[in-house]
Amino acid sequence: MENIMIGFANVFQLSNLLVCIGGLFIGVLFGALPGFSATMAVAIFVPFTYVMEPGAALLLLSALYCGGVFGGSIPAVLVGIPGTPASAPTALEGKALVRKGEAGRALNLVTLASCFGGFVSSVALLVCAPLLAKIAKMVGQPEQMFVAIFGLSVVVMLSQDNLFKGLMVAVVSLLLATFGQDPVEGFPRFTYGLSQLTGGFSVVPVLIGLFSLPEVFKMLEDPLGKMAESGKVGSMKLKIEDITHNMFNAIRSTVLGVLIGIVPAAGPDIAAFLSYNEAKKASKHPEQFGNGSAEGIVAAEAANNGVTGGSLIPLLTLGIPGSAPAAIFLGAMIIHGVRPGPTLFTQHADTVYTMIIGFALINLLMYIVGMIYCKCGSLILVIPKSILATVIVVLAVVGTFATNKNMFDVYVMLGAGIIGYIMLRNDFPISPVALALLLGTNMEKSLSLTRTMYEGQFYMVFTRPLAAALAIFTVFSFVFPLVKIAKEKKKKKAEEGQA
């Protein structure tokens, strides 16, 4: 308790409060720009922390991290273009609400759900770190394999309107994920003599192209029009039903986000898609998903922000980062002489508790900062489509190039955008591409290592209780939507027969 009080005292120093607020403003900006991300924000500002105290340095990086994850949701709602891959499910619902004239409500839902998910994850970081770290320690390659397959089961739910096309897109995308070096043995595959393909297709350029350029092409179909007739996004007030009906949804999604954050390499994007899928399964109105569902927005945003605190749990207790930004945190902590591990909470208690308490405060302050950005961001709706399209293309190109300083990535982004537009025009879903590329490499690596562990005898993985439980969840996740679709078709036929 004494260490917690020390953390409170340090966080509420004026200089540290300004660091938190400044970091949030910068982080949200990075997240809102297509191609930029929370990882990039944290990485760029690590050198600026060299002259800071360890506690202040970690507060700055925490604010950049949380702001970056949240920031991607603003363009996702306003123009249907996710600033980060984790905001892709939000874009599906956000642009539908904008068309209904409910942009303000959508932005408030996004901000509130993000703050809730981030705050609960900070409480989990404070209270549950040792317990959850023990669970993370049990996760080996077999468990990671089932987590990846479980993630791919989302394709079934996202593509239920045209399951064949969704599965076909997912299979092709999984094949694209095999381009580059074998993740275990290291030999190159499908590189066609191009050194740029040695590492495979970079996920960020593909996702920027898929989710940005098709929207640009749609804008250019009516280049003289505007996104809306006025810059007002409408009332940002929420109904009491928006909160009461989504409370359990937000809690479930946040817990899922925290748990996924603990698993190394999972990340907020996977958490957002999985939680979106679970919300759709549990919803009494699944037909609203894709047409402006508040449940979908709350699920995705609570989960991807829940990952922020969850990813730091194994970092602080075991020295194992649960995400890319957490890996940068690890480097920054070591630079400042704060080495994560079992002794962190005793040898550097003042620093680590300053960061944890600050993490909670940052997620509360994020509501104020987020609402300011949402109000300013609404001005984007009165910009002529031709100008907005030009700006988006420039940002997409700059953001893509900035990721790896590689023009090849820009060409990949442009190609992905053209393919994405063709897919949309022919009613092929885009979301399975994102899922397959994000999960494909991890699934292949864990599958190969699991095969090596058990010398090809895969049935042995079921001797691991956690792997067996994940396998059951995976089978249920694939089968339940199919059964539900079959029942709905049967019910529809029965109704048509009665008519």
Question: Could you please describe the fold and organization of this structure?
Answer:
Pfam families: TctA. The chain has 499 residues and is mainly α. It has helices spanning 2-11, 14-32, 38-45, 54-71, 73-78, 88-99, 103-127, 129-137, 141-152, 154-158, 163-176, 203-220, 240-244, 247-262, 267-282, 294-318, 324-335, 344-347, 349-377, 385-404, 407-425, 431-453, 465-498, and strands at 180-181, 188-189. The protein has a two-stranded antiparallel ribbon with strand order 1-2. Helix 7 packs across helix 14 (247-262) and helix 11 (163-176) packs across helix 22 (431-453). It starts with a helix and ends with a helix.
SSE blueprint:
Layout: H1 2-11, H2 14-32, H3 38-45, H4 54-71, H5 73-78, H6 88-99, H7 103-127, H8 129-137, H9 141-152, H10 154-158, H11 163-176, E1 180-181, E2 188-189, H12 203-220, H13 240-244, H14 247-262, H15 267-282, H16 294-318, H17 324-335, H18 344-347, H19 349-377, H20 385-404, H21 407-425, H22 431-453, H23 465-498
Antiparallel strand pairs: 1-2
Helix pairs in contact: 1-19, 2-3, 2-4, 2-19, 3-4, 3-17, 4-16, 4-17, 4-19, 6-7, 6-16, 7-14, 7-16, 7-19, 8-16, 9-22, 9-23, 11-22, 12-20, 12-21, 14-15, 14-16, 15-16, 20-21
